[in-house]
Amino acid sequence: MSELRHDPLNKRWVIIASERAERPQEFVVDGSTTNGLEDCPFCEGNEDATPPEIAVRRPPPGLPNGPGWRVRVVPNRYPALAIEGLPERRGVGLYDRMRGIGAHEVIIETPEHALEISRQPVAHVEEVVSVWKERVADLMRDRRFKYVLLFKNEGALAGASLAHPHSQIVATPVTPREIAVQLEASYTHFRAKERCLFTDLLDQEIAEGHRIVHESDEFVAFCPYASRFPFETVLAPRRQTHDFGRLDPKLVPGFSRALKDVLSRLRALLRDCPYNLVLHTAPNAHVEPHRSHWFETLPHDWHWYLAILPRLTRVAGFEWGTGFHINPTPPEEAARLLREVFS
Amino acid sequence: MSELRHDPLNKRWVIIASERAERPQEFVVDGSTTNGLEDCPFCEGNEDATPPEIAVRRPPPGLPNGPGWRVRVVPNRYPALAIEGLPERRGVGLYDRMRGIGAHEVIIETPEHALEISRQPVAHVEEVVSVWKERVADLMRDRRFKYVLLFKNEGALAGASLAHPHSQIVATPVTPREIAVQLEASYTHFRAKERCLFTDLLDQEIAEGHRIVHESDEFVAFCPYASRFPFETVLAPRRQTHDFGRLDPKLVPGFSRALKDVLSRLRALLRDCPYNLVLHTAPNAHVEPHRSHWFETLPHDWHWYLAILPRLTRVAGFEWGTGFHINPTPPEEAARLLREVFS
């Protein structure tokens, strides 16, 4: 079983996943390691190469764990965290540790090996989005989990080890540090203004206008004022709502169209660049309201969004040492190029 | 001129370095981009390919900016931050911005194109270390700078664009977020215990023993309990002292031997793997004691150290989304392999 360890100086949890341990000579240090079609466990017909499915979109008369599906969710074969057990928190001198419990699922987005989201029909993207929503909502019901992170690594340089389009969900028994930082900032702002900080930022982006990439009645995509990465884009609903797991089904088509549009623009402009998607949904407030005042204001001060992070620059010593990033492309310029690519 | 921008939700500064702007098609997304010997601006004889030197170790009768040097410091030709001017902080709605002032220097560690630190004689490493110390101390005198970060990117996958051994120093007009986190944790611990948090962690590592890689009377290297990366190693003086710029000259030989030893072990075990070095020295306390109570305890609650970060795993969506890392190699195992590699 893996282990969670806490570093009190950097206030950071780390997952020590010893079952995934590689021997020193097995570490991969090049950028070209995704698999081909011939040995793909995610392709239709290879369903027995994965653990049994947790959820699926398969029209009748298909059978469980057989072909004929459109979207399929399975446990990760090499999970970073294991689903059974209790955390068993304890101290180790000045450090903290707990058992590596959590969930680690894989959403296989399509039966086709090379059909990345931007190339899927919108109706199919809607199925992927509705499965994302369903899995986030389901994992949030487990009171051991404090955060449910949905993310996607597309391309080897974005961290994907398998090429077949898939996303992942990790549910963790601690609130991640990045989320804690946002919780605190959102709480402080709400206390002062009685408004949601992210919603205020979104309103400012809409008012300024020159960093907007996509706008509809329901969704807005923009390159944030303080983008860490070139062409970083945030996609958010116009209306403040904290929990992606409770996304109004009426918004699924609009979100899917916006996601496909933004990814199509990025991929057209940047030659199928690798990217990460990271969903910022609210932490699991009902499991620890007693632990922090941050949760008092939560349903009102959190605004979920999806971060789209193209991987064009390499993170080096400066970024690891300081936590701030050097971005060579002003977001105003990135947004203009993304707006103009299809015009 | 570049610009510093602050994101209030993530409490993060970003450098938007528009002079370094690349056109979308120019982004490099593969892992093999360091230069060869034929066009190296850092090799001896090519001194006119860099801006004029700031500091140098050159025995007589050599002339400034000519050959015959052993270590050479020059301004970065493409600086992330510019040395002239004042920050001119101002608000942009909810965001903050300031002009991108700071320093960005390159330390060319040797005239030889392929002589990485672990392969240099100890006497030469001592010269590199004494130049590091001298530059950190000099930049700390500039009251516009709140932090001086010394780091090294070795190998293309660690972010190096030039292969010739070199390190870099960036002085910034803001306290980086990672340093602010450490300041706050160190302050809180000192207030409770009247002891330095890092020194306490170091004592615990020494007492437990099984994560130690190198020990001498003066320095200790260990793989931290909550290592983010496989084979991550911290090298620190035994005695608490906060400012690397005031390193006792008597400690330079011991530090140089320890650094060479640890890097030699890493490179032997992991086949010349790429790595980052990041120096954690104290922030520039005298420039902002009025701004934060964190600085009240600073000379006593900060313990400088050098982080050695091999780049064997790829950072993906999970890490960007949460700030916590999945490390497949327990540090106990990493330290054992590093201890045994030369036995």
Describe this structure in words.
Two copies of one chain form a homodimer. Chain A has seven helices and 15 strands. With 343 residues, chain A is of the alpha+beta class. Chain A has one domain: HIT-like (HIT family, subunit A), CATH 3.30.428.10. The longest helix of chain A is centred in the middle third of the chain and has 19 residues. The radius of gyration of chain A is 20 Å and the shape is globular. The termini of chain A are far apart. Chains A and B meet through strand 1, strand 2, strand 8, strand 9 and helix 2 of A and strand 1, strand 2, strand 8, strand 9 and helix 2 of B. Strand 15 of chain A pairs parallel with strand 2 of chain B, so a sheet runs across the interface.
